[in-house]
Amino acid sequence: MEEANVHPRVHQRHPEITDNDVLDAWVHCILSRPRLDKDPNEYLAVGVDANGRLIELAALRGADNVWIIFHAMTPPTKKTLKELGLSDRRQ
């Protein structure tokens, strides 16, 4: 994945996730896809951090092609896993 920064809002909502956790998951992304129904520059992804946790990520690509990761949480929601095609379970 390309260069990324973590928005401070991530820590406000999920203080158990550090910048390093988020960036590790970004680098070790398992699957990502654009959220075309919202903004083609917004991506939803899941990746693994250095602790082996699966982390859900949402990021927006800026005009300078640097990603801003504005959402991160663990574990990923069933909705996210379904949106990425990692689960076919109905909700």
Question: Can you walk through the features of this model?
Answer:
The protein is of the alpha+beta class and 91 residues long. The chain has one domain. The chain contains three helices and five strands; from the N terminus they run βααββββα. It has helices at 9-13, 19-27, 78-83; strands at 4-6, 29-35, 39-48, 54-61, 67-73. Strands 1-5-4-3-2 form a five-stranded mixed β-sheet. A hairpin with a 5-residue loop joins β3 and β4. The chain is globular, with a radius of gyration of 12 Å.
% residues in beta strands: 35-45%
* Gyration radius, in Å: 12 Å
Write down the secondary-structure element order.
Answer: EHHEEEEH
Note poorly predicted spans.
none
Tell me the overall shape.
Answer: globular
Termini gap? 30 Å
Helix count?
3
Helix content: 10-25%
Q: Any key phrases for this structure?
A:
91 residues; alpha+beta; 5-stranded mixed β-sheet; 38% strand
Summarize the structure.
The chain is built from three helices and five strands. It has helices at residues 9-13, 19-27, 78-83; strands at residues 4-6, 29-35, 39-48, 54-61, 67-73. Strand 4 and strand 5 form a beta hairpin.
Question: Could you give the topology of this structure?
Answer:
Elements: E1 4-6, H1 9-13, H2 19-27, E2 29-35, E3 39-48, E4 54-61, E5 67-73, H3 78-83
Parallel strand pairs: 1-5
Antiparallel strand pairs: 2-3, 3-4, 4-5
